TrEMBL record:
The chain crosses the membrane at residues 120-139. This is Uncharacterized protein. InterPro entries: Tetraspanin/Peripherin, Tetraspanin_EC2_sf. It is a multi-pass membrane protein. The keyword Metal-binding does not apply. It is found in: Membrane. Keywords: Membrane, Transmembrane, Transmembrane helix. The keyword Transmembrane helix applies. One of its GO terms (cellular component) is membrane.
Amino acid sequence: MSENPTEVEDNIVKLLQENIEKRYNEETVRTGWDLAQLEFECCGAVNYMDYNNTAYNFPASDQTVPNTCCKLSNREAALDDPSKATPNDSAKCYSRDETEIYTKGCKDSLKEWALKHSTIIIGVGIGIAVLEIFSIVWACCFCRNIGKDD
């Protein structure tokens, strides 16, 4: 049942691509991807081709990728509200001109971010585990004392 790191990474990429393909039309998923693409200046999981089969209907008829995959004229404002992302040249971006679209995928940027912040992620996980163990111990002590007279 053990998987090697390449298999794990391949499975994560597959999940990310399925997320774009099947769930990008959900606002929360779309906002998450848009923020990641803005922050890391990337597009899709592997690259912009991940948007080929998405169920999402883009606002412009010629649009093939989200605006957040494009090089923007208002990047700082878009970080506050991704729906306001305005491409420098939407025609070039939508036609996937590599001068106006981010060509690298987000998986590598997300992996780098997770590795950079792994200490914090592990610390938070341990903190939550300790809190849960403490809660279980407290609940057991509380249950043992129910109905006992002082």
